[in-house]
Write a structure and sequence with these properties.
Helices cover 37% and strands 16% of the residues. It is α/β, with parallel strands linked by helices. Helix 1 packs parallel to helix 12 and helix 2 packs antiparallel against helix 3.
């Protein structure tokens, strides 16, 4: 066994990363997860997000840690729709009908501080428009909200946690990461990560147009797995969509299942690829040890030294369990009651995982990756790779 801190960073502790999936209004769950991490001394060193995950990530990384939760509350209060009744005091059928009405209102009237419909745009009737206006909704309100709630100078300073948001290059379909360790990240990068067509228009960044990163990969775990140099990492991965679900029987259930399948995490594919690389690096080290000292050139030794770190990534998967009555419009249900419930659920799920805290145990020598998942009854299921 070895302690997970052996190959950690300068602080002597594993790096803490937070990976946030896209999912519209479901993203209030992210905020609850972050609150629990912050309150328990697990404030991330690095936050990675796509779509609504990128927005939440920017609110977290773009503010002093003591102000992050307040900024998240401001954002979700701004976009939340006022409820006509207390959803905690009515039957489930009434809550479902209310959620449907809220989603309908958000579809036709937009969401304050987020997006507004383009009622008189020629785009509605199939006529050409400027690329930045080729959408059903205008995202200008979001730009104003982000400008108010994200401190860009702090975000791009050495004091801030690292931020990475992903977007798809419209012209070539390539996924690109905008990372504060590599460049100055602005409002346009955050908005590009959430520009899901045809609802939202592409966003121009440095002359090129970008769409929502979720079109390519809605859970940006691969960004963490591919990061160099490798270091021990404790990664909290937050999933808002479920690849597992019941057989659909109605039109709405079919649309719901379609969304779940399209946007569910593809993390296992990335985990498998990471493990193949991990095993290959261990094999290279074994073979290198058998070579005579003068068998390699200086350049070859330097290249092999870069592969020499034997690190472990521990992934704690936190999955939003709300089925939202199999509503296809669940991601546009910005009801304040629903937002509050999702936030509280994220907080409870993260607290439960922290109490279990299996990552605090030692790991077997040579372990490349461990996935932990805490069930609602408090039991942990995990996969050691």
């Amino acid at each position: 066994m070895r302690n997970a801190n052996i190959h950690a960073g300068p602080s002597g502790k594993p790096r803490v990363a937070l990976v946030l999936q896209g999912g519209g209004a479901l993203g209030a769950y992210h905020a609850g997860v972050y609150q629990a991490l912050h309150e328990n001394g697990l404030t991330p060193d690095w936050v990675v997000g796509t779509s609504i995950g990128a927005i939440n990530a920017a609110l977290i990384a773009g503010n002093d840690p003591d102000r992050c939760i307040a900024r998240l509350e401001q954002f979700w209060d701004e976009v939340g729709q006022r409820d006509l009744l207390d959803l905690r005091r009515v039957p489930d059928t009434v809550r479902r009908f209310h959620s449907w009405l809220t989603a309908l209102n958000c579809t036709f009237n937009g969401v304050a501080g987020f997006y507004a419909p383009r009622w008189f745009s020629p785009f509605f009737i199939g006529l050409p428009v400027a690329a930045e206006q080729a959408s059903l909704y205008d995202m200008t309100p979001l730009a104003g909200t982000l400008a108010q709630l994200v401190d860009l100078d702090y975000l791009n300073s050495s004091a801030a946690m690292r931020l990475t948001v992903s977007a798809v290059h419209l012209s070539c379909g390539r996924l690109e990461n905008f990372d504060t360790r590599q460049q100055r990240v602005g409002i346009e990068h955050i908005m590009a990560s959430g520009a899901l067509p045809p609802g939202f228009p592409p966003v121009r960044v440095d002359g090129d147009l970008y769409w929502d990163g979720g079109l390519y990969s809605n859970t940006p775990l691969e960004t963490v797995l591919a990061d160099e140099p490798r270091t021990d990492t404790l990664c909290f991965m937050v999933d808002l969509w479920s690849g597992d679900g019941p057989e659909p029987h109605t039109f709405d259930e079919v649309l719901t299942r379609q969304k779940d399948v399209v946007y569910a995490s593809r993390s296992q594919r990335h985990i498998d690829a990471y493990l193949r690389g991990h095993k290959l690096r261990r094999m290279i080290r074994t073979l290198r040890a058998k070579l005579p000292a003068d068998a390699l050139s200086e350049a070859e030794r330097r290249e092999l030294d870069a592969l020499d770190a034997d690190t472990t990534i521990q992934i704690v998967r936190l999955a939003y369990a709300g089925r939202d009555w199999l509503m296809a419009s669940k991601d546009v249900n910005f009801s304040r009651g629903s937002i509050r419930w999702r936030w509280e659920q994220g907080y409870r799920d993260a607290r439960r995982a922290i109490v279990v805290g299996a990552w605090r145990d030692g790991v077997p020598e040579g372990t490349g990756l461990i996935v932990h998942e805490v069930k609602s009854d408090g039991r942990e299921s995990f996969c050691t790779q």
